[in-house]
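Example 3.2
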Amino acid sequence: MEAVNSASGSEPSESSAPGHPSAPADTLPGRGGNATAGYADAAGQDGSDESTLTVLLALGANAGIGLLKLVAGLLTGSGALLSEAAHSAGDSSTELLLLTALRRSDRPADRVHPFGYGKERYFWSLLAAVAIFISGAAFSIYQGVTTIFGGAQEPHDKLWINYPVLAIAFVLEGVSFRQAVGQAKGAAASGRRSVRSYLRDPDDPTVMSVVVEDSAALVGLVLAAAGVGLHQLTGSEFWDGLASLAIGALLVVAAFSLAHTNKGLLIGKQADVRMIRAVEARLEAQPEVLDLVDVLTMMTGVHRVLLCARLDFVDGTTADEIEAACVRIDAELRAEFPSLDEIFLQPVPRGDQRLRERVLNRYGRVLADEPDRAATADPAATATSERAGEADPAATADPAAASRSTPARPAQ
């Protein structure tokens, strides 16, 4: 049978209800235990406004800090301060890209993009990671190399200018960092996750981007201060250049971390594994469902999850009953899991070996129970044996005699 539309019962389901998953996962777990333990669907908590505030605050801080660093770097000739100025310029361009991501990803679905524009947030966040690498890391490494191997000695009487600039920058970056971490804590708490788990595998890359940027900025300021201080103490620009190289390496790590996260989201990650387990339990608890054969989920954007479930319905269930069941199941799932944006329910036989092999290859295990092969392999033989039992009541009354007269079936 074709996939049943859970809304009309005749075509594949394509209905919209904004929501979002707690976090994607890489593997589908085994069943058992409390399906909803440790999971809370936080789709109803819209964090778009808070994300915009976080990005705007980071943009203002980086723009002001970058200007101060540039002036101080030009006055003192410090390679570390010039690298930090490039770092702030890269962060500012990153925030502009993140604002673009927030605006464009909220557009509604249309005929060209029926699943919406949610993944645009991942695309622009990926470009933000590239911007960090190009404008920040590359310039910092270049500045470090030229300072160590070709930089002219600068007078030390101006180096004191760097310290108040670095102190002001640290305070402003700290304010931005606190806002970003506060939002990350709220998002992690709503999904009943730790902050570390949320930042390692987020559903909103803009929050992670700001946290990573500000963390790198705070560490970079410490490195710049150390480089300037050692330069002033020793009179050698080697330390200033070394600080620039360290800042460049730090930005490379930050850029690749953000790029890796957004790459996984762009390719298509499944929803939070706890949510999948809970959906499994709800589907198998339906009276019309004999077994869950396959389940697929994909994050189509922040607050949006696509669900496809292949179900083996109880034998004898009519087409009208299957359609009515799909409509009811769709409504129940949306009520419990607002993050489900699109739901597809497809009736399939659990004995389909090709489908079972695909599920096994994907998850490393088969979701559906093994069907009764004796019944599915030869229905006519089963019917004949039943008629024979009716014709010979003694055989059914004496199971031992029946077992002696019937050869044993090889173990499957």
